[in-house]
Amino acid sequence: MTLERSGKTGKPQTKLQQRETELLRFVRRRPSELGAPYRTLLRKLEAETLTEEERQELLPLTEIAEAFAVHRLEALVELAALRQTTLPDLRRELDIRPRRV
Questions:
Q1: Residue 101: inside a domain, yes or no?
Q2: Distances from the Cα of 97 to the Cα of 40, 49, 68, 76, angstroms
Q3: Alpha carbon of 85 to those of 32, 67, 81, 91, 92: distances in Å?
Q4: Phi, psi of 51 (to 5 degrees)
Q5: Taking 60 as the threshold, does the pLDDT of residue 1 lie above it?
Q6: What values do phi and psi take at 54, rounded to 5?
């Protein structure tokens, strides 16, 4: 098994630990393509005040958000498997809640 040094502690880190770290980082991040404009458009959609031009702007952002949500869920499932636990238990343990992107 390959060992690498952890950035914070300087202790050796196994491939398994490295993968867990990668998955946790991914699960906790948000896609950079989304942000305030996406949230603004979602609020307008919910308020039913979205123009056709804004709807066209929202569609590709929604596709990005949905794809990210799928990848995030896949990462959570893989992390749960690595830790030999269930997805609900992992989410409780890490205080990971469903969220809008």
A1: no
A2: 22, 29, 15, 11
A3: 30, 25, 6, 10, 11
A4: -80, 165
A5: no
A6: -65, -35
100 inside domain: no
Q: What pTM value is reported for the model?
A: 0.74
Q: Which residues pair with 14 in a beta bridge?
A: 3
| DSSP β-bridge partners for residue 3 | 14
Query: Over 60: is that where the pLDDT of 70 sits?
Result: yes
Whether 31 and 64 have beta carbons less than 8 Å apart is answered as: yes
Res 7: pLDDT:
52
Residue range of the domain that includes 23: 3-94
Q: With beta carbons less than 8 A apart as the criterion, state whether 1 and 14 touch.
A: yes
Residue 14 lies in a domain: yes
Task: Count up the domains in the chain and report the number.
Answer: 1
Q: What is the DSSP string of 16-38?
A: HHHHHHHHHHHHH---TT-SHHH
Share of the chain above pLDDT 70, in %: 84
Considering the domain boundaries, does residue 99 fall inside one?
Answer: no
